[in-house]
Amino acid sequence: MNYNQRTVSLGKTDKTEISPSSLLPPSNKTKPLCALNKQGVKHYTDCTFDMYLESTDIDITEIHGFNAWREACLEDGTYGFEAARLHAQDTEVTVQRESGETLCMLNFSSYNYLGYTAHSQVIKAAKHALDQFGLGAGNSPILSGTLAIHKELENNLSEFLGVEGYSISLFSSGYGANVGTLSAYMKTNHVLVLDTHVHASIMEGVRLSGSEICYFKHNNPQHLEKVLKRVAQTNSRILVCIESVYSTEGEIACIAEVVTTAKKYGAKVFVDEAHSTLLTGPHGRGLCAEQGVLDQIDLLVMTFSKAFGGVGGALYAPQKVIHYVNWYAACRMFSCALDPAVTGGVIASLALAKGSDGELKRARLKENAQHMRSLLATRLDIGKSESWIIPVFYGTEKKSYPLHDYLQRVGLDTGLMQYPAVPRGRARLRLFITSEHTSEQLEKAAAILFEAAERFDFLNPR
Ligand SMILES: Cc1ncc(COP(=O)(O)O)c(C=O)c1O
After folding, report:
1. Who lines ligand 1 at CB under 6 A?
2. Which of 169, 188, 238, 281 has the fewest CB atoms within 10 Å of its CB?
3. pLDDT tens, position by position, 128-175
4. Each residue of 223-269: pLDDT tens digit?
5. Structural domain 89-113+356-455, CATH architecture
6. Where are the domains of the chain?
7. Cα separation of 362 and 366, whole Å?
8. CATH for 121-354?
């Protein structure tokens, strides 16, 4: 693809062959799913994710519209989503796109923060668990799916975090841990007070709970106090929900201030430590521990898909809460328990992370993140990132697909975030820095980003 003279077809080999129906559903009698230009066609790069999110039609118009967009990208050779990695996640990856094309890239889009996904000891432990317990757990945990290896992981995590009287509930994903916990713990007559930037899985749990929802300004305990002052008068259960390291911006939450404010008004606190467990705090115990408030958190969720290098999630809470959630979180009660091999691997990641291996890797992770932030901040907008998650803002959604394709072709894989995951017009690339990246890889990635920013017009003046 020549990015200097870039021409794009609209989903057929020749522009003239395109009819409006190629981007619209066959019988779209109500409002079109995307606005039309003079020729009756919206160019695929002008189509955004949210255009196919809603539909009030009887026909499956949004599905037709979305597929027309997807085919247009594929025919233009720019569809880089779900490109299959040909090996385990590493700092460099070879991927095969749906078109069959193979690309080699620096990998800044995986959560494999400490490189445990393919660590020899983790793999060995996973294989051992597979041999001992088989492929699947065979039932939901509350019935017959709990295996001895699940108990071992629960005990190891409880001992690691160390709050008296707290224990662990395992879920088959971090997403499920948030949805299950919030929907079980909060009821229709309760109030949830949410940071405006909380993750989609928290929002889903919140919606399922049926509780009343209030928001406070992002990472702003002063505004939280204003909201709490008002809602405390309702005299009902109040739960304040935050993340530790915000996944869309890479900011560090002021958890200690949130806790002090919440407790002042009798509210409980929920923290999603997806992007901080094993990565910071004493022996990797996370950000709540680092800020000295771990024992004051009412509900703490962690995921095994990030620093642990596996998949799954856990709630850490007072034992009575755990017993209740184990029964009343529907996605735990009605879904199979964590698979044994992953459980074995996660036990091994935890053992590595809390010891000297973890200390070394955490130090390298922090150095790498600091190095990359200072490189990028010279010419790019990286917002308020203070962590290993670094957003690079490019603004309008319209740049998303060509930019994503361009980066992959020139050898850089990053995440892509756009509305409605983030506010409209604040679209961004998202880089996950790991302890495993070398300085050369960081510098090469920064150079690629500067070049991209110049071409796509988001490079800040010197
Ligand atoms: C803040 C946060 N919470 C929860 C999740 C869901 O975790 P999982 O991928 O383990 O289901 C994610 C995933 O990206 C996340 O970023």
Report:
1. 173-175, 178, 199, 201, 243, 247, 272, 274, 303, 305, 313
2. 188
3. 999 999 999 999 999 999 999 999 999 999 999 999 999 999 999 999
4. 999 999 999 998 899 999 999 999 999 999 999 999 999 999 999 99
5. Alpha-Beta Complex (3.90)
6. 15-70, 89-113+356-455, 121-354
7. 6
8. 3.40.640.10
